[in-house]
């Protein structure tokens, strides 16, 4: 069985919920304290043993490529000023064994289409899909947990968590016939069902480990509203050919695609930050 060494990061979205902040800067570059969301996602992939990062990008996303590129002028300036600690942080953004590939998604045709754009690079290997909007705080990271489960089973795995029944219309929802095991086969999956029609309240979040069978399914799935190809529809088709498993990962998810979730993440991560944590706690205490 081939190991998971590649991760796909769909980063072509416009980030309209954070306008005007995202007018000229990618939403994936929004910082959680002092590190952008996309770097948290890449760090998670690296911890899972992944060495090839595949970014599916769009217009105005050059900042992501620049972030993971070498900054000769900045490094030279920091070295001249004796800023060794900061220089070490800068050079550690991307370890030397990691490679990055950038693919342009010319049209915003859905998450499934973004994943399909990565097919020429992924080839015939299993791969992870990580959505930077979903910041998952866990030890080990959620992707590492899921890669380990893939190596044990050889099946595609979707990261899931229980959400409020009223929130099902915001997620892909899976039916596991009520099974509460950490890892369990999926019976069906539906995209953003109304609460009254949802088969459960077990939601798929932004973590996937997929076999390459997903590509043929995505190529044959019928586009939905706005001509978009939904990854959920591709997964439903994949389930007709091979098992797909739901995994209740261990960790806390912050929905950083929403303003509230983004602010919660900043507060929680700031409280643990070695440089400002104690001072920030004192500040919060003073607000009571």
Automatic annotation (TrEMBL):
Catalysed reactions listed for this entry: alpha-D-glucose 1-phosphate + UTP + H(+) = UDP-alpha-D-glucose + diphosphate
InterPro entries given in the database record: GalU_uridylyltTrfase_bac/arc, NTP_transferase_dom, Nucleotide-diphossugar_trans
CDD domains on file: UGPase_prokaryotic
Enzyme superclass (EC): transferase
Keyword RNA-binding in record: no
Domain Nucleotidyl transferase: 11-267
Swiss-Prot/TrEMBL GO biological process terms: UDP-alpha-D-glucose metabolic process
Gene3D superfamilies in alphabetical order: Spore Coat Polysaccharide Biosynthesis Protein SpsA, Chain A
Extent of the signal sequence: none
E.C. numbers: 2.7.7.9
GO MF: UTP:glucose-1-phosphate uridylyltransferase activity
Keywords: Nucleotidyltransferase, Transferase
Domain of life (superkingdom): Bacteria
Any matching Pfam family: NTP_transferase
Family: Belongs to the UDPGP type 2 family.
Official protein name in the record: UTP--glucose-1-phosphate uridylyltransferase
């Amino acid at each position: 069985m081939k190991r998971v060494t590649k991760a796909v990061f769909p980063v072509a979205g416009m980030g309209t919920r954070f306008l005007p902040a995202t007018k000229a800067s990618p939403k994936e570059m929004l910082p959680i304290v002092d590190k952008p969301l996309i770097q948290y996602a890449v760090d998670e992939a690296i911890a899972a043993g992944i060495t090839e990062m595949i970014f599916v990008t769009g217009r105005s996303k050059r900042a992501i490529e620049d972030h993971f590129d070498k900054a000769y002028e900045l490094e030279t300036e920091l070295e001249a000023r004796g800023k060794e600690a900061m220089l070490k942080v800068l050079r550690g953004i991307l370890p030397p064994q990691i490679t990055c590939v950038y693919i342009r998604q010319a049209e915003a045709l859905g998450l499934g289409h973004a994943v399909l754009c990565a097919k020429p690079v992924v080839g015939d290997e299993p791969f992870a899909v990580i959505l930077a909007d979903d910041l998952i705080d866990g030890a080990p990271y959620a992707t590492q947990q899921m890669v380990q489960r893939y190596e044990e089973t050889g099946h595609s795995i979707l990261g899931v968590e229980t959400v409020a029944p009223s929130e099902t219309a915001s997620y892909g929802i899976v039916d596991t016939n009520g099974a509460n095991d950490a890892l369990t086969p999926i019976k069906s999956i539906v995209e953003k069902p109304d609460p009254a029609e949802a088969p459960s309240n077990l939601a798929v979040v932004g973590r996937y480990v997929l076999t390459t069978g997903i590509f043929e399914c995505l190529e044959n799935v019928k586009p939905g509203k706005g001509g978009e190809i939904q990854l959920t529809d591709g997964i439903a088709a994949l389930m007709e050919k091979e098992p797909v498993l739901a995994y209740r990962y261990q960790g806390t998810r912050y929905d950083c695609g929403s303003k509230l979730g983004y602010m919660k993440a900043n507060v929680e991560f700031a409280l643990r930050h070695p440089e400002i944590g104690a001072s920030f706690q004192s500040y919060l205490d003073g607000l009571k």
